[in-house]
Write a structure and sequence with these properties.
- This protein has 188 residues and is of the alpha/beta class.
- Helices cover 38% and strands 30% of the residues.
- The strands form two sheets. A six-stranded mixed beta sheet has the order 9-7-3-2-1-10. Strands 6-5-4-8 form a four-stranded mixed beta sheet, with no helix packed on it.
Length: 188
């Protein structure tokens, strides 16, 4: 019994640690970053944005997908398919939701250019190629390399005012408090 508890706690800790490392690697791409924010959609509602990064090119919205398996999706497909061994499942094409987020942020970003990407972890494979606006995490790091301290400081200073104005319109959209860590282990 004690061994089962220890193994369960270890698995949950390991999964959380890996997820936290993944999130940290995305936040490090930006000159500044916000995570789990809500942006007004312009129609009285709110849209959740997983990562909002200030980059040398402007604002980047990153929607992370940590899906294991072979993915088959395309720009014109309404549903994408995941095949992981004998399991097969589908999910809605995430591009349209990304476009909605880009439009909502553009409406508030002033002079800052806004782009968005669906970023997949290395657990995902696209055997037929990547759809538009989709990239692997490693490619994101290549497209937005780390800058030296002086360049970072200069870029942040030039973009600080419009970035701060944008961030002031956002609301914290983090996960609501749930069961404690140990209760989570025993309930899963």
């Amino acid at each position: 019994m004690l061994l089962a508890i220890v193994v369960s706690v270890w698995r949950v800790w390991r999964q959380r640690f890996a997820r936290s490392q993944l999130h940290r690697s995305i936040r490090q791409i930006g000159l500044d970053a916000r995570q789990d924010m809500l942006v007004p959609d312009g129609m009285g509602g709110w849209l959740h944005i997983e990562f909002l990064l200030l980059t040398p090119q402007g604002v980047l919205i990153v929607e992370l997908r940590d899906i294991r398996g072979n993915l088959f999706g395309g720009d014109q497909m309404s549903q994408w398919t995941v095949m992981d061994g004998p399991r097969r499942s589908t999910f809605l094409n995430p591009q349209s939701a990304l476009f909605d987020r880009i439009a909502a942020v553009k409406a508030l970003a002033g002079e800052l250019p806004v782009e968005g990407r669906l970023v997949f972890s290395r657990r995902s494979v696209f055997p037929k190629g990547l759809p538009n606006w989709t990239m692997m995490l490693e490619s994101l790091r290549t497209q937005y390399p780390r800058l030296d301290a002086a360049t970072r400081t200069d870029l942040i200073a030039r973009q600080r005012e419009p970035w701060d104005a944008l961030c002031a319109t956002l609301t914290d959209g983090g996960p609501t408090p749930g069961p404690s860590f140990l209760r989570e282990v025993f309930l899963s």
